[in-house]
Amino acid sequence: MTQIKDTPIEKFLDALASQSATPGGGSAAAIIGAMGAALVSMVCNLTIGKKKYAEVEGDMKEVLRKAEAVRLRLTGMIQDDVKAFDTVMSAYGMPKETDAEKAAREKAIQAALKQATDVPLACARAAREVIDLAAIASEKGNLNVISDAGVGVLAGYAALRSAALNVFTNARMITDKTFAEAKLKELNELLAGAEGATERAYGVVKNKVS
Fold this sequence. Notes:
The chain has seven helices and no strands. The chain has helices at 9-17, 25-45, 57-92, 99-140, 146-171, 177-191, 194-209.
């Protein structure tokens, strides 16, 4: 089976626009975040090795290493979101004629909803990393491509908030309130300060290019 990440972008967009429920917003959030990470990497790659930026080379190499790692994680999440959604749909499609079937179905639904909460939460976690890495790139990156660091931080923020919507959606249907509240607590911690960090980085870039 061809992975979504291996399909041409036009095919992916056609699938996104189709009547099929997958790929959907969760996969889009992951690819947006991955694009943000890729832009951070590009800024790093065009800064490293330049005499003018020799004093920040060590920092940019570390940012590059982290950006590539998070890009890899986010790329994998494109397919993870589809799998999580399909698992939820399969659980809802289980038979429910007898009490035993109803109990098995409900158990499967709740397990699937937990998975469907964990996947976008992982995406949100990774997207928050993209914001922080893009902020460093905005401060220290090659001025010739600094606008790309700004796009990267905005992509990270869009991915974070997009993934958050899926966490909110699934967490509210989970009957294990301890689990749901823990996930929402982590999500809110990821969201806290993200807007401010994004706007600061955007401001830094805007001031450099204006």
